[in-house]
Structure formats: structure tokens, C-alpha cells
Design brief:
The protein is an alpha/beta fold. Helices cover about 40% and strands about 25% of the residues. The longest helix is centred in the last third of the chain and has 16 residues. It is globular, with a radius of gyration of 18 Å. The two termini are about 35 Å apart.
């Protein structure tokens, strides 16, 4: 479980998150929603330890991520594939990550097969399609078989079969008892994949709960979430 307690973060005096308190339970997929600038990526970066909160605490299984003996085994992090070195091959990229986390080399072969990139392992990242780069970024998050995983817009660049594959992967990870957090702008896909939703507006929690708690019975989830976000845009 990931616990966020009273977290506030500002950049240049401009609030990005304001007194956010929430939990991401193990064994569930939580969809993180909000308009651009709502604070989704900031929250994920704070959970990952890339940024530090100005106030408040974030823990994974009652420990700060930096206090875990094996941080990569505690938390798998997926961010924009553009952050990967385009000169590296897919295999070299994962080998570099494996060295950081003391992950066995055999795991690289397993995860390349898991994301469907086994036959492209020796291709440079610059030569990979956008969908293949996205799969490689996902592979990096999976590499150390972590207890919890966070994904920032993992659907970008994936074709329809890739989206279905990702949906099944996320559901399977949650079924294994892992904590899964996914930020995405594809509302229909979030509604199909997530057990819970956390909706941010101007750095604050606008709604949180299960799909059934947020979406009224008999209402199309995608349309309801779309109306919710459009209402924020018009506010």
C-alpha cells in the first residue's frame, strides 16, 4: 500500500499539490485523473522519490521509498519513454537498470518476452516505434518485480492490441497483490481497467473512491468522467 499524508508541493511559489491525503491499496488498480496541470505527474514523481514534498509524508508499506533496502523491488516506475537514451539498445537499457537494482540478468530476458520485445532486443531505442518504446518503458517498471508500480500515461503510442495487452497486464499485476497506480487521459480505458479513481483538480482531491462510488448506477463511466473533467475545465 502507498500512503500519502498531508502532501503539499509548490514550484516557484505556485502550488502543484495542496494537502493531499490518500491511499493506494495493494491488489487494486487506481486510475489517476485530472486536467493538464492538475498535479498527476507531480504526485507520481513525489511517490517515486524524484521530487520531495514541501510538507507531508509518502510511504510504501510504512517506509519511505528511500528507506527500503531494495527500492526498485519496492516500487517500479514508468515515465515518459523520451527519457530513455536513444543510442542504447533495448537490452542495454534494461541491463543498465538491472545493474542499478542488482537484478539478475535472466530477468531481462523474461521481461523482454513479457512485453513482446524479445526479437527487438538489439535494436537501438531510436529505431523502435513509439509503441515499442512504450513497451520498453513498461518493461523497466516491471524489471525488479516490485510490490507497487506507478505508470504515467502508459497507453500513449500503443495500438489497439497494445492497449488490450496493457489492460490485461495491469489487472494481472493487481491480482498478484501489487499496488498499481495509472495516470491516463483515456477515460474509457481507465473505466475499464481501474478499481478505484483519484481525481485531482488544481492540486487538490476532487473525488476519490471506487468506480461504483464515483459513477452513478446506470451511467456510462466514460461519459460521466468526461463530464466531470469538462466541468472542471469550465469552472
Amino acid at each position: 500500500m502507498i500512503d500519502v499524508r498531508g502532501v503539499t508541493k509548490a514550484f516557484g511559489g505556485i502550488p502543484a499539490l495542496v494537502d493531499v491525503t490518500t491511499s493506494f491499496p495493494a491488489g487494486t488498480v487506481t486510475g489517476l485523473l485530472g486536467l493538464n496541470g492538475a498535479g498527476k505527474t507531480t504526485l507520481l514523481r513525489l511517490i517515486a522519490g524524484v521530487e520531495r514534498p514541501d510538507h507531508g509524508t509518502i510511504t510504501l508499506c510504512d517506509k519511505k521509498i528511500g528507506d527500503h533496502a531494495d527500492p526498485m523491488g519496492a516500487l517500479g516506475v514508468h515515465f515518459d519513454p523520451s527519457t530513455m537514451d536513444p543510442r542504447h539498445t533495448a537490452q542495454r537499457h534494461l541491463s543498465w537498470l538491472a545493474a542499478l537494482g542488482d537484478v539478475a540478468g535472466a530477468r531481462i530476458d523474461e521481461v523482454l518476452d513479457q512485453v513482446g520485445l524479445a526479437e527487438q532486443r538489439h535494436r537501438r531505442i531510436a529505431q523502435l516505434s513509439m509503441g515499442a518504446r512504450q513497451r520498453l518503458a513498461i518493461a523497466g517498471a516491471l524489471l525488479a518485480e516490485p510490490q507497487a508500480l506507478i505508470f504515467d500515461e502508459p497507453v500513449n503510442g500503443l495500438d489497439v492490441p497494445g492497449i488490450v495487452w496493457l489492460r490485461d497486464l495491469l489487472r494481472r499485476l493487481a491480482a498478484e497483490g501489487r499496488t498499481v497506480v495509472v495516470a491516463s487521459h483515456l477515460l474509457g480505458e481507465v473505466a475499464l481497467t481501474a478499481d478505484r479513481l483519484l481525481v485531482l483538480e488544481h492540486g487538490r482531491i476532487a473525488a476519490a473512491g471506487s468506480i461504483d462510488e464515483i459513477v452513478p448506477a446506470g451511467t456510462d463511466p466514460r461519459r460521466h468522467l468526461e463530464a466531470l473533467l469538462l466541468g472542471m475545465a469550465d469552472a
